[in-house]
Design goal:
about 350 residues, mainly alpha
Length: about 350
């Protein structure tokens, strides 16, 4: 029989089973929330959250055959109550949502590009085919420059021409020494170079003052056998003797086989000092004058036959002798003696 008493207004206290169910529900929710925030703490900004131990550890309940306690979703999670939270917790990398853009420097920062490293291996050598070997440039013959022969020097045209043709080769330190005296041996060398193609017309002479091994012996032998120079009495050549101007003129006239076309005395009237010409050389000087070989400086009418010839004077007369032979073109000079047309 049912009771006719109305239900009491007092609430009955919760039973043990109901209390356990509530704790399990809240524990499960807390575990899920902790798992979500641990996966991505930036979304809820829960980096420094600390949860009570009740949410990290399951409640301890007596064994009950009818109620099962759920396991924690992530058994590796540590309890915030027992593990200190680092100031900068490790955050799992999050996959980018879009393409990775290159980093750009802040505005105002000057970026210096890195200097490229030069290769350590040497560059390969460039080889040319054998058929394309470079040819040696031909030496350019330019104006000869001597410190003691200025451009306006009276004998410069003759000196430069003979040096260019290697008639004169005995100069050093860019000096020609135009005013130095000329010896008989030096004249023999010059004559040999200007007339090396001439055939001998005389027999050689063994001069007692010229040794066979002397460096000037071949030149002396050539000038003697070709008729340019002669020796002195007693079988002497006197190679170191300074040669006078008259002997230079007579040697060139003899070697070129020149003969005067008129009386020598009339031709020598060009010279104010004609009386100083030795008798043995009168015809030679007259023939050389007619041929345009005689060169007088500084006065064309002053022959100065017995004065020692200088290197510049010999150069001028050697060049005029080569011009007479047709070896070089004639040069105009105010110091070259031009014969007058005299009646016979």
């Amino acid at each position: 029989m049912s009771s006719s008493q109305p239900p009491s207004g007092e609430r009955n206290p919760l039973g043990l089973d109901e209390l356990i169910a509530i704790l399990v529900a809240f524990g499960t929710m807390g575990a899920i929330l902790f798992w979500v925030t641990g996966r991505n703490p930036d979304r809820l900004n829960a980096r420094n959250w600390q949860f009570p131990a009740v949410f990290s550890q399951p409640a301890v309940t007596p064994a009950s055959p009818g109620i099962l306690t759920p396991e924690s979703p992530n058994s590796d999670l540590r309890s915030p109550a027992t593990t200190p939270v680092p100031s900068k917790p490790d955050v799992a990398p999050v996959a980018p949502l879009g393409p990775i853009l290159p980093q750009t420097p802040p505005v105002g920062v000057i970026v210096v590009p890195p200097k490229p490293i030069a290769p350590s291996t040497p560059a390969p050598a460039i080889t040319k085919p054998k058929g394309d070997k470079p040819k040696a440039d031909k030496p350019k013959v330019g104006p000869v420059i001597f410190s003691d022969v200025p451009d306006k020097y009276w004998a410069r045209p003759f000196i430069v021409a003979l040096v260019d043709r290697k008639i004169f080769t005995d100069f050093t330190d860019s000096k020609f020494r135009p005013d130095e005296p000329m010896t008989r041996a030096e004249l023999a060398r010059l004559i040999q170079r200007m007339s090396d193609d001439k055939e001998p017309i005389r027999k050689p002479i063994n001069f007692k003052d010229v040794k066979d091994k002397s460096p000037v012996a071949p030149a002396i032998d050539h000038t003697v056998t070709t008729g340019y120079l002669k020796g002195y009495p007693n079988n002497e050549f006197r190679p170191d003797k300074n040669i006078p101007r008259v002997e230079v003129i007579a040697a060139l006239a003899s070697g070129l086989s020149l003969k005067p076309s008129t009386k020598a005395t009339k031709t020598l009237q060009l010279y104010t000092d004609r009386t100083k010409v030795p008798k043995w050389a009168v015809n030679k000087v007259a023939a050389a004058t007619e041929a345009g070989i005689v060169v007088n400086h500084p006065k064309r009418a002053l022959l100065q036959p017995n004065r020692t010839a200088t290197r510049a004077e010999v150069a001028a007369m050697i060049y005029q002798a080569m011009a007479k032979k047709g070896q070089v073109p004639a040069k105009a000079s105010e110091y070259v003696v031009r014969p007058l047309k005299l009646s016979k």
